[in-house]
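Q: I'm writing a short methods note and want an example of a predicted protein-small molecule complex. Could you take the sequence and the SMILES for zinc ion and return the bound structure as tokens? Please keep the output block clean; save any remarks for afterwards.
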Amino acid sequence: MAILWVACGSNDDSENINPDNSISELPAAFAAFDTDNVSVTLVNNGTEILIESNGLPNHTSPYWSSTTERTINGPMGEHTTPAAAQDHELFVQPTATSFDQMAPGNIDDFNGSYSLTVSAVPTKATTSSATGLGAIGIAVSGAMIYNDEEGPNVPLDGVVGSLDYNGAHTGPQSYHYHLEPKAWSEDDDELIGIMADGFFLYGRRDYDGSYPTDLDASGGHFGPTPHNPDGEYHYHIQNELYLNQYYILFPGDYQGSASAIR
Ligand SMILES: [Zn+2]
Ligand SMILES: [Zn+2]
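A: Understood, no commentary inside the block.
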């Protein structure tokens, strides 16, 4: 077990960080994750953090099972999502989308898990790297964060009608967000989740209510967050209108070294 290193006579702002890049307690931001859906553990002697999720969101959506049967004729053919005997307790009627535009499948069809291991003290990589299809981050709700593509070189534009009020829909695997998730963040500084490179993603605003003006190509910068007044590198939702009404969560590259979300 590592011994906590205390800086003597220095103005060091990293008193929780040991010289071997391990930490003794989880960063405060992890308190924002839903404990029913997500578990967060310090592993490998405090040098890494393991985030495990059941992939389910902790909020309402029209994608929870309901008594409405819906059939869509999409690019992958006709899909019918059968009616359930009763509405799931988190089911709400579609507002941003409609039953005949929604993607196939219900949130509660997904019966699996995701896990991500990141460095306890993530640092920026020498070069940025592109995100891939599938999960690129884990949201505080428990569901997954995707980028701005729906398939290989398929932009979101064609499927935007299937997104619910959280900018999310079901996919081949699980319910996932492409856009600002209004269930808990709309033009604010809420924590959205953790990206696969270990950096946190926040809402469009900084902790002081301002829009950051010094963001890099990935929407990231170093500065204080609502969870860390000392400052750390973090991302923001891109504050740029998409199709005149949406905000894309994370269209850029990872600035750190990403691990796979399995
Ligand atoms: Zn999608
Ligand atoms: Zn910021």
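A: Remarks, as requested: Residues 1-13 have pLDDT under 50 and may be disordered. DSSP finds no helices and 19 strands in the chain.
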